[in-house]
Amino acid sequence: MSAIKSALRNNTYELEDDMRILVVEDEKALCDAIARSLRHLAYSVDCCHDGQTAIDLLAIETFDLVVLDLNLPEADGMTVLETLRETDHDTKVLILSARCDIADKVGGLDAGANDYLTKPFHLEELAARIRSLTRRRFVQDNTVLTCGTLSFDTSSRKACANNRPLSLTRKETGILEYLMLNQGRPVSQEELLEHVWDCNANSFSNSARVHMSALRKKLRESLGHDPISNRIGQGYVMEDSE
């Protein structure tokens, strides 16, 4: 496990969101452009450039979505997809490929991909596809999550308390969104690290507690109360107690 993480360390972007995305693309310039674009949208992004590394990483790490090229060295994208789907039917997969024939698209979707985007493409369209897929992952009927008078727009990635905008850092934004998506159930620090941080996160660091403390202070100041409670031995719970 450590060897795989070390191999990816130079291709990992320190990001600030709850959604973890793995970009598997052998064209490094394109991979870097995609990662930078997603970073600006506050996603946590890990990158790798061959299929076998992707297979190994997906076996040990948890991602919400995989952006997957088909023409890869070591193991092609279809092999990566088929291997993933042998044990994991939940992780979303968006194929990026220069193959634009209908047969290729049908083959990718039938193999378990959730979406298929042909090259060349606009980064804005890629971002829109990702928003659609991540909304579907949580089966949201609305892009706005609410907890009492607290709201979070998953499209604009903005939070409001009592109809007033909240000024949050990217990590605070990621924590808030993940807790609001999982209202009513305990979320452990380890789970937050899995979904809000990338694979370089140190599970022994107090980073999650620091960002959580800052978020809760802002919520108390804006709402007049703290909707997040800490259940000892279980984790953080967001619920409307008013």
Structural write-up:
This protein is of the alpha/beta class. It has 9 helices and 12 strands. The chain has helices at 2-8, 28-40, 51-60, 77-87, 102-110, 123-137, 170-181, 189-196, 207-223, and strands spanning 12-13, 20-24, 44-48, 65-69, 92-97, 115-118, 144-147, 150-153, 158-161, 164-165, 228-231, 235-238. A 6-stranded mixed sheet has the order 1-3-2-4-5-6, with helices on both faces. Helix 3 (51-60) runs parallel beside helix 4 and helix 7 (170-181) packs across helix 9 (207-223). The longest helix is centred in the last third of the chain and has 17 residues, at 207-223. It is elongated. The termini are far apart. Mean pLDDT is 81; it is low at 1-17 and 136-141.
The secondary-structure class comes to alpha/beta
Number of strands: 12
Distance between the termini: 45 Å
Helical fraction equals 40-55%
The secondary-structure element order is HEEHEHEHEHEHEEEEHHHEE
Low-confidence stretches: 1-17, 136-141
Number of helices: 9
**Widest β-sheet, arrangement of strands:** 1-3-2-4-5-6
**Largest sheet properties:** 6 strands, mixed
Radius of gyration: 18 Å
Q: Could you tell me the mean pLDDT? A: 81
Shape descriptor: elongated
Strand content: 15-25%
